């Protein structure tokens, strides 16, 4: 807060931190939002071509683990790009599709486990995973196109 009672602008670092925190909260919060319809353990792994789950995590771990992956990825990308002198647009091009991918993976896991009493009943959500991958690729392409248009504008 400034002396005159107004708030200071966050700037690029503040915006990056806010966006990273918001994405982490969304990734971690999705399973908790549906927890009333989920089993105590969530199916989180499917082996190869099998439609049945072969691995699970408790709800808290299924929420926390992907959020930690996100925070590690965001931190790594920020440090690597900063050390290489890359522009902020590379952060967007790299991290926005990553956030979409992790949110989509969480949504797919929730969908697979939704309204089941045991994680063994969860079937591989193939359609959801394909849609997630396609959305992440389109997001990456859109971020790339938007950043190149902006950089060429006088």
TrEMBL record:
Keywords on record: Membrane, Transmembrane, Transmembrane helix
Protein name as it appears in the record: DUF1648 domain-containing protein
TM annotation in the entry: 12-34, 59-81, 93-114, 126-146
Organism domain of life: Bacteria
Organism: Streptomyces cellostaticus
Phylogenetic lineage: Bacteria, Bacillati, Actinomycetota, Actinomycetes, Kitasatosporales
């Amino acid at each position: 807060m400034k002396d005159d009672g107004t708030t200071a602008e966050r700037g690029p670092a503040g915006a990056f931190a806010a966006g990273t925190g918001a994405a982490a909260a969304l990734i971690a919060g999705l399973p908790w939002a549906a927890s009333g319809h989920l089993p105590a353990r969530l199916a989180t792994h499917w082996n190869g071509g099998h439609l049945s789950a072969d691995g699970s995590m408790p709800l808290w771990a299924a929420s926390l683990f992907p959020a930690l992956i996100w925070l590690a990825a965001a931190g790594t990308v920020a440090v690597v790009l900063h050390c290489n002198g890359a522009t902020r647009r590379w952060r967007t091009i790299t991290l926005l599709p990553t956030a979409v991918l992790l949110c989509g993976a969480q949504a797919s896991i929730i969908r697979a486990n939704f309204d089941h009493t045991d994680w063994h009943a969860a079937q591989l959500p193939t359609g959801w995973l394909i849609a997630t991958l396609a959305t992440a690729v389109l997001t990456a392409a859109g971020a790339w196109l938007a950043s190149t248009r902006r950089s060429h504008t006088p």
